Amino acid sequence: MAIYSFWIFDRHCNCIFDREWTLKTNPSSGTTNSKLNEDTAKLLYGMIFSLRSISQKLGSLDSFNEIRTIATAKYRAHILCTASGLWFVLLSDLKQEDLSQVLRYLYSEIYVKTVVYNWLSPVDFAETANEKRGQGFRKIRNRQFLLAVEQFLGPMVN
Amino acid sequence: MKQKIINPSTSVNTATHPGSTGYDYTMGPQQTLPDLPVSSGTIAASGTNGGSSTAASAHTSLPSVYNGSLHPHAHNQHVSLAAFAFLFQELISQARNASKSVSEIEMRLHRNGYHIGIRLLELLNFRSSVSPGFGSTSSSRAFFSKTSINSSSNTLALNNALTTTQDEPSLAQGISHMKRRDLKPVEILQFIHSTVWTYLFGRVSDDLVKSSERDNEYMLVDSAPMLSQFISSTNVQCDFFVCGIIEGILDSASFPCNVTIHSVPEPNFQQRAVFVVRFEQQVLEREALRA
Amino acid sequence: MAIQTILVINKSGGLVYQRDFVPNAPRLSSNEYLILAGTLQGIVAIASQITPKSLQLDGKSSARGGSEPMGNNSAPLVPYMGTLGATTANGAPLGSFLGPDYFNDAFASWNGRGLKHVTTDQNSLFVYHTLTGIKFVAVSTQPTTNAMAVAVAENLLRKTYCLYADYVMKNPFYEPEMPIKCELFDQHLGTLVKQL
């Protein structure tokens, strides 16, 4: 099992959390909420956004056709879109065929419990109008959340 | 005997299907030229000697091209179907660019085929004259064959040809009597139905029928025409090329006629084509006098 | 799993062929399909840009090691699947490739880094690249991430490519890069998909 990175996007198209592991052998390697990953985040968002619009056209009209995974020859991206417009994205190797359970756990057990229930943490990370549409810079810096993510995803890295 | 195959730089897994035959879509064209021995002096010598037995040694002289193609069992006379398809495609587009109407395109194709036909009659008649057991034992194969030659067998064939120049008798000795000229319309049509079709397409044509309505009409049926198999049906009948070949053969055998094609689709053979041969009145008159 | 739609996208991102195989396929306007093709063309390039860092590091180190000539760019071989699409029902060959089936080995995909496969709640979408930049896209009616299903789709699209080579490229009346209107291609593709 190998996962490469984990991303959260909010409904303003901003990346509000990113965590990338650079060494498969070391779960504590890599970057969290790094400035260097801004461009990658935008590309990833763009790709998912486009494929989402394609899938919605391809699906039948009466139900919603949400995107689940995207695979290239090298990696697979697993996507969970919540009703509130949040996207949880996990990049893994090709052997992981479906990580939707993991994403659901990250959402319901970690994000909801450490960010939403936490009265001191903002839920909407865009505070002004010009922090929308990918211009946002605020990230989840909540220690409890970071710790929980590390504990949960760390063992899956290698 | 393993031949070096020219691969495009992009092919990755050439090693995974070594035993496969035929054209490989994933690899592109393969080299089918043999590794001729590189000895500059003798090649020049054999060039002037024309492949006669006086060439330096059998091992280094080139085989005579002329001998090879006249031989009835010229077993390496293959053309890649794909390569021919592209050539044919170019022929058609050229005819198309130069023409103003559909019938003009067909006429041009017809004319191209006609010139092949008049030459083909000579060659095939000569080949049928050579007694069957002469020379190589392998059966003759189609000109437009699906199997491109295995490169190693090609080398073998050429090596055979190399030795032929010295050890085996010349082609003329294989001819005890020349084939008689076909005199009846049915005979020459049989010749086209079997010999010509086998030479061109590797099989005999599917049927040869006489028209019940008109005396001078015969029909050659091909349920899957080889040349136009990739061409979706359009207004233009590309098989007019084959019509031209047939008409060329018949004309130069003194059976003046007019050949047209009609596509008659059947459930299993969507591209079934019927070549209608309509002899001129003089052929029938001659036939009546002979009988 | 059935094939819902097959698309062919030319090397400049234009849609040249689109065909539905199930009766209840969603009706997209031709304009929407054109946009879809253009979008896919862009995504294919983007997808290779966001290859994770740890994979990029892996690729560099193995390329330096020199053990593998292609570095980490060579994707694993796609296994060969069955005798799909060798002949039509009455035994006539489907294309000019040799029977019983010419392709009976695993093959390397030319798609080293780009987009390959997308699943949604209702569909799967498979992409097959050729070296010349043509993309063959199949949309199936069920989501699947099963490696077997992906391999079957890859085989199917490769066969489609063969048919394209035979019945489109060898047709003198086809203008390159233009929409494909070849009866024989339609017909043989139909037979191929029916065999699934």
TrEMBL record, chain A:
Biological processes annotated in GO: endoplasmic reticulum to Golgi vesicle-mediated transport
InterPro entries, A to Z: Longin-like_dom_sf (IPR011012), TRAPPC (IPR007233)
Key word Calcium present: no
CDD domains, per database record: TRAPPC1_MUM2
Oligomer and partners: Part of the multisubunit transport protein particle (TRAPP) complex.
GO cellular component terms listed in the entry, alphabetical order: endoplasmic reticulum; TRAPPI protein complex; TRAPPII protein complex; TRAPPIII protein complex
Family matches, as Gene3D superfamilies: 3.30.450.70
GO terms of molecular function: guanyl-nucleotide exchange factor activity
Annotated compartments: Endoplasmic reticulum; Golgi apparatus, cis-Golgi network
Protein name: Trafficking protein particle complex subunit
Alphabetic keyword roster: Endoplasmic reticulum, ER-Golgi transport, Golgi apparatus, Transport
TrEMBL record, chain B:
Compartments it resides in: Endoplasmic reticulum; Golgi apparatus
A Pfam family: TRAPP
Superkingdom to which the source organism belongs: Eukaryota
Annotated GO CC locations: endoplasmic reticulum; TRAPPI protein complex; TRAPPII protein complex; TRAPPIII protein complex
Any one GO molecular-function label of the UniProt entry: guanyl-nucleotide exchange factor activity
Keyword field: Endoplasmic reticulum, ER-Golgi transport, Golgi apparatus, Transport
A biological process from GO: endoplasmic reticulum to Golgi vesicle-mediated transport
Region (Disordered): 1-57
Residue stretches of biased makeup (Low complexity): 39-57
Polar residues bias (residue ranges): 1-19
InterPro entries membership: NO_sig/Golgi_transp_ligand-bd (IPR024096), TRAPP-I_su5 (IPR016696), TRAPP_component (IPR007194)
Family: Belongs to the TRAPP small subunits family. BET3 subfamily.
Listed name of the protein: LALA0S09e01112g1_1
Organism field: Lachancea lanzarotensis
Automatic annotation (TrEMBL), chain C:
GO cellular component annotations of the record: endoplasmic reticulum; TRAPPI protein complex; TRAPPII protein complex; TRAPPIII protein complex
Keyword 4Fe-4S: no
Any GO BP annotation: chromosome organization
Alphabetized UniProt keyword annotations: Endoplasmic reticulum, ER-Golgi transport, Golgi apparatus, Transport
Predominant location: endoplasmic reticulum
Domain of life of the source: Eukaryota
Molecular function terms from GO: guanyl-nucleotide exchange factor activity
Subcellular location: Endoplasmic reticulum; Golgi apparatus, cis-Golgi network; Golgi apparatus
Gene3D superfamilies assigned: 3.30.450.70
Subunit structure: Part of the multisubunit transport protein particle (TRAPP) complex.
Family: Belongs to the TRAPP small subunits family. TRAPPC4 subfamily.
Family annotation (PANTHER family): TRAFFICKING PROTEIN PARTICLE COMPLEX SUBUNIT, TRAFFICKING PROTEIN PARTICLE COMPLEX SUBUNIT 4
Name of the protein this chain belongs to: Trafficking protein particle complex subunit
Native species: Lachancea lanzarotensis
